[in-house]
Structure formats: structure tokens, C-alpha cells
Amino acid sequence: METMHDKFAIANALRETGTLLNLKGENAFKARAYLSGARALESAQLDIKLLIAEERLTELPGIGASLAAYIVELYNTGETKLLSHLREQLPPGVLELSRVEGLTLKRIEILHNELGIKTLDELEQACNEGRVRQIKGFGLRTEKALLKAIDASKASDSQTLLVDVLAAAEDLVSFMKAALKSDRIVLAGKARRWHETTDTICLVVESANSNRQAAFDAFKNFSQVTKVDVKNDDFMRVNLSLGKTAEMHLTDNLALGLIEHTGSKEHYQQLQKIAEKQKLTLAPGSLKKSSQTIEIESEADFYSALKLPLIPPELREGEEEIALAKKGAFADLIEIGHIQGMTHCHSTFSDGRHSIEQMARAAEKMGMKYITLTDHSPNAHYAGGLDLERLKEQWEEIDRVQELVKLRILKGTECDILADGKLDYPDHILDKFDIVVASIHSRYKQNAKQMTKRLLRGLKDKHFKVWGHPLGRLVLRRDPIPVDVEKLLDAVAESRLAIEINGDPHRLDLEPRWSKMAKERGLRFVISTDAHAMSELQNLKFGIHLARRAGITKTDVLNTLPVEQFKAFVKAK
């Protein structure tokens, strides 16, 4: 029987186990344990053989005795009874096919039984040949939707969610700082600009010529490196587990290295042109006037040398940020410290994982002055939406917890916008909420005309005060809803309501281009966490940086206001 001595192969087997358990609908916590174990094993600095020989697997975060035994079984035999059983029960290719939006386990089984499909390429070929539409329950419409979803799946394979990139980058930066005994190592590239996805972790490392070999040696010895791809005098690119790529740029000057490798190529070229007009020479690692080197100790020093205000990393896209910065547009850009209230939060009353008291205390610990509890409305039955009886119980619990904490707890709802545009509670109930976040959670297949009409009707309801995750996208999983965004923004401008910038790292909705248009119309925003657990209150940072990419300032954001002013804006009148 074949053994499995490579930690990445074992991690992949753990990940496969967790994913297959999820697909079967098994216990979510059990499935999550295998996925967490895979990440912990990939990040382990010690050799897998040593960890097993010394019985130290349980020292890794999230690996208990049973998971350690599972890893040992994989190491010794290359398989486990559980994984073999899951593979036998589920159709071949289920892991690959399950990434296609719209393909449930039941549909994958039908495709395999009817057409023998077990790969993405086979599914694409069957769709193109018109064979899928002939299966009962599929049809031409489904076939076209699958082709679109296959294209999206292939495009997303090269991209990684920002939240996952940041987690891997944190481990890599910490490792490099310890290895080189230096703090002059910073994450750059798209991740520093807080793009929703990226295909590369980009590090800038300040290193003198004499120390560069040490930097190269450390970088390639990081525990998740599977292969060195490219290396030259000041650059190395490596492949990491899970298909990610990391690159390291060595520089004599950290600030100038960050200028070169944080912003887009277009932004850097614009800076070079400005430098040329001022008879400055901007080259990698240096800024000179004639033959004299200008001392640059920070990025602010650099922009100042070009007679520009500091342009924040999130805005360095090569669009109109330089002209706007000259006008002072980013002087009061939103910061996490400006936020006074945690908005759009769920509890165990619907689909949250922590109680109202736990959520309130966690928000209070973060320094918040208020929190809005917005559990789901009845139509969201899959998420434990609250009927009137449960809503009454929730309000009673909020009143009880309010006696125990100093921060204000506002009674709210994330209310479904139904297919016809109506809100999912009767008016006499909606009147009683402190805040109504109105969102779409169903009937995503309506066309643009239907969806726009649906939202326009909803916007006219006086209770509709915050438009939740407006375009309903799930990054790399679901496209934004088809809708006339500009028409809706014009309608919002005529109403007294706010648009949510959703910090859930799987949503990150609205995209900056739409938030910019909303800001141009004078609209106000709420930056939310969409938290379903205490830990997800940390989603706030994703919402903040998403807003900064659109140039959103403190005065644009409602939950920078004290509680009474905030409540006055979002309460239906």
C-alpha cells in the first residue's frame, strides 16, 4: 500500500475529506476541522516525519487527538477508511464539479449516471454538444447557465480570495521577519490595495546586497513553498500549496520599493511622468535630481518630493486619484477608528453562531458605542428567519441584554426584498424597528428589467433605510444581480436611505466603481460586517478598505455618527 510522506499531499487529503463531508451535508464543524487541519499542516515549520515520530501533531493549532490519528494513518498507508468510504459514496469528479455554481450533489450524480461526466472539461463538451439539455430536469436554459458558470469557475481557479491571501501572507511575512531578524518586510501588490482577489502574494524586502542570499534562502525555505519558479538578482517567485504564487522584490529602500510594487503599473507610470516634468529620475530603489540622490524615508516623503499629497495604497490604480488627491479629496478618508457602531449583525435567533449577549459584549470590547441586531426575516427560512413569535422573543432578549451592557443595542432586521419588491414584514411591524436593512436573498434569476423594477418598488417603502449587500454578489462564486445600477442610484438619491458597503470578505459589495458613482450623487453609506459570529466583527476592516478604494470619507458614512444621530437617520418615519 502506498504511503503519503509529503505534508502537502496529506493536507490535500484532509481538505478533500472536509469538502466531501460538506457536500454530503455532514456535521459542518467536523468538516471544518479537516479544512483547518489542512491549513495548520501546510503552515507547520517542522518536518512531518519529525512531528509524527515525536507525537507532536497535537501541538499544531486546531489538531486534536482524532485528527492527529487521521494524519498518521494517511502518512503510513496513503488512505483512510473515511476518505475511501466518501470517495465510494460520491460520484467521481465531485470535487471539481462542485465548484460550478448551480451544480448540487444531486445534479452531479445525475450528470454522471446519464452521461458519465466526471470532469469539468467533459461537462463543458457535453453542454456544447447539446447533450445536457436532453436530460430530464435540465433543458436549454440550464445548459447555457452551466456553460457560463464553467467559464466563471475556470477564471476563478487562478484567483484567491483576499481573506485567504492575507492569511497566507501574514504567515509568510512573520516567517521572513523571524528568519532575517528584520521588520523591513511589507506586503505589497493587489493585496495591499485590498483587491477582492489576487493570484500572487507580493512582498517587498529591504535588503543590502550582502544580505540578499540570506533573503533568497529564507524565502524558498518557507513551509508552504513547493517550487522555486523564477530567480534573478533582486527577485524570486515561488509556487505555494493550494496553487498560490508568492514573489519577493529586494530593494535598497523599502519606501521606494513599496511605491514601485504597491500601485498598479499605470499609477507608477504616472508618477514617473510627473517626476520627469520636475527633472527628477525615478528608478527602482532611487529618486534623483541630476546626479544627487534625494533621501526618501517614507512613502509620504516620496509623494512630497513630487509635490503631491500622500496617496493611500488602496487608491493607487492609475485612474484619477492623482488629480483628486491634489484637490484634497482624500484628506478625511474613512478609517476604522471613525466607526462608532457595528451594523448588520446576526445572532443565534436566525443563522448566527453566537448569542445576542455574546455579540454585544464582543462589539463593546472593540470600543463600539452601539450594535444593530438584524436577524433574518421570515422568508429566509433557510437561515432561520424570524416569524412574529420569534421576533417578540428576540426583542425581549435584547431588552434583557441591554441591562447588562453599556453599548446600545438597536432592534433591527435584515428584511428580504420579495420577488415583487415588497418587504417581508407587515408595516405595523416594520414601524417598530430601529433599523431595516433590506436585501435580496432569493429569485436571483430575474432578468435586469424585472430586478430593477423589484428594487425600485422596494426603495419607495418608507421603512427601506439601508440597502443591504446591494448587488448580491459572492466573490468568485456568484455574479452581481443583473440590474440597472445607475437608475437605482438615481432613485436612492431621491430617497432618504443609505447604501451598505458589506465587509463580509466573501461579498465585498458594493464594488468601488459603483460606490464612487453613489458618492458623486451625494449618497450616504453604512459600512457593515454582516457578522454571523463574534470573530466576524473583524470583517469591519474589509468594509473600511473597500470603502477607501472608492474614496469614501468619514462624513459619507452614517455609522461614524453617535447613536442618536445614526438612529434618527435610519429609523422609519
Describe this structure in words.
- The chain is of the alpha/beta class.
- The protein has 4 domains: 7-89, DNA polymerase, domain 1; 94-156, DNA polymerase, domain 1 (Orthogonal Bundle); 161-326, Beta Polymerase, domain 2 (2-Layer Sandwich); 336-570, TIM Barrel (Alpha-Beta Barrel).
- The chain is 43% helix and 15% strand.
- It has 24 helices and 17 strands.
- The strands form 4 sheets. The protein has a 7-stranded parallel sheet. A 5-stranded mixed sheet has the order 2-4-7-6-5, with helices on both faces.
- Strand 14 (435-439), helix 20 and strand 15 (466-467) form a beta-alpha-beta unit.
- Helix 1 packs antiparallel against helix 2.
- It is globular and about 75 Å long.
- The termini are far apart.
- The mean pLDDT is 91.
